[in-house]
Design brief:
five-stranded antiparallel beta sheet, 25% helix, 237 residues, Ribosomal Protein L22, Chain A, four-stranded antiparallel beta sheet, alpha+beta, globular
Length: 237
């Protein structure tokens, strides 16, 4: 299938906003990006929830529940949110099991979002998916050893901030799709950097392919695997 990852700008300056207002603004822009990805995919978004580990729960078009996320109501992604199809949190729709073609048949969709002060990224998929965005800027030098091993650095042409954030976002996008989180960083390994736009990773003997895009000082990574990728960036971004 074709995935439509969306990148949207955060137009307002969030640097001086209080914490809750900042989170609310980023959530609103993330919702807008996710809605665009859904529209391009021919999907109608239902309710969106995250489980107790903050992992996005796939939604089903069969929910027949108003998309409060798109209406701007409710605490999007809160740990207290109860999933309408299960008893408590983290209950996936029953028809979500099995291969992707089964999920397409029953209308189960996975989603992922990521945001930074200047831009957000979002994507919808029939299968597990992850997306991550980071601004390319110098930080603590200790990040180089934290993000990758010496063997992984030997795969790249240079040990630069650009490469660091390529590695970082590739691992984050993969771990998000798996549902592990940043705690799995050391067990997710870069095994190939075939070109400037793709990275191959290994997690527990399973291979993953990530596609990457550089955009206005940022790196965006999305889990690609066997899908085609069509990046969506509105002209006024």
């Amino acid at each position: 299938m074709t995935l439509f990852p969306v990148i949207l700008p955060v137009i307002e300056d969030i640097s001086r906003l209080p914490g809750k207002e900042k989170v609310a603004l980023l959530s609103r822009v993330s919702r807008e990006a996710l809605k665009l990805s859904a529209e391009k995919s021919g999907v109608t978004i239902g309710e969106l929830y995250k489980d107790e580990n903050a992992v996005p729960i796939p939604f089903s078009n069969s929910n027949s529940i108003p998309g409060s996320l798109l209406q701007g109501s409710g605490d999007w992604g809160s740990k207290e949110a109860q999933h309408p199809l299960g008893q408590g949190r983290g209950q996936y729709p029953a028809c979500g099991a099995g291969p992707p073609q089964n999920r397409r048949f029953c209308g189960v969709y996975y989603w992922s979002v990521s945001h930074k002060p200047k831009y957000v990224a979002a994507v919808i998929s029939y299968d597990k998916v992850g997306i991550d965005i980071e601004e390319i800027k110098p930080r603590s030098e200790s990040l180089f050893d934290y993000v990758a091993t010496g063997e992984e650095w030997e795969l790249s042409q240079e040990k630069s901030w650009d490469t660091l954030f390529r590695y970082w976002t590739a691992k984050e996008a993969t771990l998000k799709a798996i549902g592990v989180g940043i705690g799995g960083l050391k067990t997710c390994h870069i095994i190939s950097v075939p070109d400037e736009g793709h990275i191959i990773l290994d997690y527990q003997n399973r291979l993953f392919e990530v596609e990457q895009l550089r955009y206005k000082g940022h790196i965006v990574s999305v889990l690609k695997d066997n899908n085609q990728i069509e990046w969506i960036i509105p002209k006024d971004s």
